[in-house]
Write a structure and sequence with these properties.
By secondary structure, the chain is an alpha/beta fold. It contains 26 helices and 16 strands. The strands form 5 sheets. It has a 7-stranded mixed beta sheet with strand order 3-4-6-5-8-11-15. A 3-stranded antiparallel beta sheet has the order 7-9-10, with helices on one face. A two-stranded antiparallel sheet has the order 1-2. The longest helix has 30 residues, at about 80-110.
Length: about 675
């Protein structure tokens, strides 16, 4: 993610030291950064945009290796000069963006959030952000969107590569080794680690430098080929550029959050970027598309744009307490472009043109040290946040408090869909099938399995947030929920497989079956019916009943978990008043949740679901019977902290305590005959 100052030209004299600017490289940068921004702003609409980072890796490996090879072949290589160039290239924008991000954090962040951003600032200045984030996984201690320095992980991977790569190249030339043999060996080792780790340890494969170096090395190999065989590739420039465009198009189109990435999938963006570079600046797409004025202009500011866009989006989420609306996102992206241009024009260019290189280098280095010291002071609470919460900290700490998948859940792929598994030594296998309401029970399941691994069965969460576990039911708009049909189909296929003996279904049932629901339709046998029409709901109920009947026919124990209490009374945001830009205070009184009113409001779906369970022999679990007492449900714990993180999802700590009603689903037993719906509704509340 570095601005292209000069790179080798596509002629035989390049290796002798002639360097020429390639506008199409900046055009590729523009493509990469726009893809990343689109993915970060609208991850379900631009699901493959994250591969823009892989394009950056290839470009970076190509540029730096081109310069190093040129210097080594001319006998002018200096390791000190190399690192001075790196400092002058990447530090200027960082020394603007990082202090600004910390300053805004001082204004708006709470104590825990401010401490975390201080830690991440230290990691960013020392280029170990990827290792820190890797260590935080289950780094789902809080959502990635609430980490304003999250995006610095890719810069850390690059700098870790450049600690080793110049020294390796120096050894290659001093010992007269063959470059392609050494580069190929590094590529194979790194790629092998990537492929071997990605299925079982996806977080490690994503953040580890070992599993990412092959992408930069691919750019390095292209640099060598371009230096010594440019004309050979230029003869096929049109085919190479078209082939590269096809690979990049496939990468953007085919990869998404379900992909085993990097893995083999990363070959698409890496291969596409390599072909486009090898095609040369005069190839058809490079000249007519990538080399045009607008892409080049965006490419020139791509590095500061990358640095600015994520803190802006992250802070918008933090300040809103939820996903910001479309106009806000568009305004922030526009602001990112403006800030990037200002950074480029007022900071990057002036510092690059200064002749007193030593003074500039030392000043930039001291600036980064100052940021690191500030981050350390923040992380240790020597420097505290501005905001005065007047006792509202427990309520604000509840926001974005989620933990799925947790640290002991392991990814499991079934029919091409990514699920999560909690392994145990006990007999049997239980499948939890549902949406995010089912996922909120993950902390309880992990805790139970870890506490009693010899007695409880293994568990697979065959779930997807926002996807109702009802076959033939489509969540709208489909562009936002493209994976729901495939996920639900795979979940039921897994649930009906021979190795599974128990199936537990749970979801936001009352949210789906209500008069205001307009985001579902049933699509079966060519007939489409849209919610909230009564005939559409009837078709959905019939589909759910048929699915439960099939599970029972296949000998499964089936549990139907009703929706737990939910509503604005649980929302931590309703328990405070004020603003992150001023002061925040708790509301005078937080009332309990009225269970009788909740049941009355949802009487129709409650009756239908319990009837379906009775007809099919499923066992009903109603969480409210465990969580409430005397028709009132607590919304705060004994210390006065919220039990939920939003209107419908429990906080991990509360899930671990309160969801013990699910433990019997992990105890192996015979598949029951038709069971009374109230079979598991007879226990005291767990607060």
């Amino acid at each position: 993610m570095h601005r292209a100052a000069v790179i080798p030209s596509n002629n035989h004299s390049a290796h002798a030291g002639a360097l020429a600017y390639r506008p199409d490289i900046d055009g590729m940068r523009a493509l990469a950064v726009i893809a990343v921004i689109a993915f970060h702003a609208w991850p379900t609409w631009f699901a493959g945009g994250f591969v823009g980072v892989d394009i950056f890796f290839v470009i970076s490996g190509f540029l730096i290796t081109s310069i190093l090879l040129s210097q080594l072949e001319k006998g002018k290589f200096s390791i000190a000069d190399f690192y001075v160039r790196r400092i002058r290239r990447i530090f200027p924008a960082l020394t603007v963006v990082m202090p600004a991000t910390l300053a805004f954090g001082w204004v708006t962040l709470l104590q825990g959030e401010f401490q975390q951003i201080g830690k991440h600032a230290v990691a960013g200045t020392t280029f170990v952000s990827n290792l820190v984030l890797w260590n935080e996984a289950g780094y789902f201690d809080n959502d990635g969107i609430t980490k304003p320095f999250l995006h610095l992980w890719s810069l850390a991977v690059e700098e870790q590569f450049y600690i080793l790569w110049p020294l390796i190249l120096w050894l290659v030339f001093s010992r007269k080794l063959r470059f392609l043999w050494v580069a190929g060996m590094i590529f194979v080792i790194s790629m092998s680690a990537n492929v071997l780790l990605v299925a079982g340890h996806p977080v490690a494969a994503f953040f580890s430098p070992l599993t990412r170096f092959w992408e930069l090395m691919a750019g390095g190999v292209v640099a060598y080929l371009n230096l010594h065989h440019a004309q050979r590739f230029a003869r096929h420039g049109t085919a190479l550029s078209l082939g590269g465009a096809v690979l990049l198009g496939l990468a953007f189109w085919l990869t998404d959050e379900q992909s085993l990435f990097p893995g083999w999938w990363a070959m698409l963006p890496v291969g596409g970027a390599c072909l486009l570079i090898l095609a040369g600046k005069d190839a058809v797409l490079n000249r007519l598309v990538l080399g045009r004025r607008l892409p080049v202009a965006i490419g020139l500011i791509s590095y500061p744009l990358y640095l600015w866009h994520w803190p802006l989006l992250s802070y918008s989420h933090i300040v809103h307490g939820q996903k910001p609306p479309m106009p806000v996102k568009l305004a922030l992206i526009g602001a990112g472009f403006v800030l990037a241009w200002l950074t480029y024009r007022l900071v990057d260019i002036p510092l690059r043109e200064r002749r007193d290189r030593t003074r500039v280098t030392w000043s930039l280095g001291l600036g980064m040290v100052a940021i690191a010291v500030s981050g350390l002071a923040i992380s240790t609470s020597m420097l505290r946040q501005r905001i005065d919460t007047h006792g509202a900290e427990p309520f604000l700490a509840a926001l974005n408090d989620s933990q799925y998948p947790g640290p002991t859940l392991a990814p499991l792929r079934y029919d091409g869909v990514l699920f999560q598994k909690a392994a145990s030594r006990g007999p049997g296998l239980t499948v939890f099938l549902g949406d995010s309401v089912m996922q909120q029970y993950g902390p309880r399941i992990e805790h139970a399995v870890a506490t009693d691994p010899a007695r409880l069965s293994s568990v697979i969460f065959a779930t997807a947030g926002g996807c109702p576990p009802i076959e033939h039911t489509v969540r709208l708009p489909q562009i936002r929920f493209p994976l729901c049909p495939k996920t639900v189909k795979a979940a039921y296929a897994l649930a009906n497989s021979a190795q599974v003996d128990t199936v537990v279904l749970g979801a936001a049932w009352y949210g789906y079956f209500n008069a205001g629901q307009r985001e579902l339709l049933v699509d079966k046998d060519g007939v489409q019916k849209a919610f909230p029409a009564a005939d559409a709901q009837e078709l959905a109920y019939a589909s759910l009943r048929a699915s439960l009947a099939t599970l029972r026919k296949n000998g499964k124990r089936v549990f139907l978990v009703l929706q737990p209490p939910a509503g604005s009374a649980y929302d931590p945001q309703s328990m405070v008043t004020g603003s992150r830009f001023g002061t925040i205070v708790p509301v005078p009184k937080v009332p309990a949740f009225n269970l009788a009113e909740y049941r009355q409001r949802n009487a129709a779906p409650l009756a239908r679901l319990t009837a379906i369970a009775a007809d099919t022999g499923a066992i009903v679990i109603e969480p409210a019977q465990f969580m409430c007492k005397d028709q009132l449900c607590p919304v705060l714990d004994e210390s006065g902290a919220p039990l939920y993180t939003d209107t419908i999802h429990m906080r991990p700590a509360y899930s671990r305590r309160a969801a013990s009603f699910l433990d019997p689903t992990m105890l192996r037993g015979p598949a029951p005959a038709t069971a009374k719906p109230t079979a598991l509704i007879n226990s005291p509340p767990a607060l």
